[in-house]
Amino acid sequence: MSAAPQTPEVPTIVLDSTDQAPRLARRFLAEQFARWGITDDYMGRLVVCELTTNAYKHGEGPIVVRLSLDPDDGRPVIEVSDTGTGHPTVQPQDYAATSGRGLQLMAELVHEWGVKRLTGGGKVVWAKLP
Question: How far apart are the C-alpha atoms of 77 and 128, rounded to whole Å?
Fold first, then answer.
């Protein structure tokens, strides 16, 4: 009898959709990056904060943050999901706007990013760090 292959557990935190979610997501990321030996977590904290803030402000239900290392290139991947139906998009530049630039800035900083619809409803916004 052979054992089933073990898949590594993906570090995950489930957050209430409150104004505390971004702070808790940043702390979760910093602690996990430290476990992985990633000493420069600035961009990761920025990205997880932006994605969690968007989920809190524009999404619905609990916010789920998952962190992983891409098995092909070892780059950190941040996933933030919620049950909302909205689809995040980078907004055209509006120099008079007082908000709405976060996703555009994040998109310019990361290696790649995207949105996946979930079968049961909701979405996952993910970003791979450089």
Answer: 4
C-alpha angle 21/71/121, rounded to 5°? 45
- pLDDT band of 4, cuts 50, 70, 90: low
Predicted model pTM: 0.88
Q: Which domains does the chain have, with CATH numbers?
A: 12-128 (3.30.565.10)
In angstroms, rounded to a whole number, what is the distance separating the alpha carbons of residues 54 and 82?
Answer: 10
Sheet containing 112-117: order of strands: 12-15, 63-69, 76-82, 123-128, 112-117
Contact 99, 54 (CB under 8 A): no
Tell me the per-residue pLDDT of 79-121, one tens digit each, with 9 for 90 and over: 999 999 887 777 777 666 666 677 888 899 999 999 999 988 8
Measured between its terminal Cα atoms, the distance across the chain in Å is 42
CB atoms within 10 A of CB 81: 24
Q: Phi/psi at 98 (nearest 5 deg)?
A: -100, -5
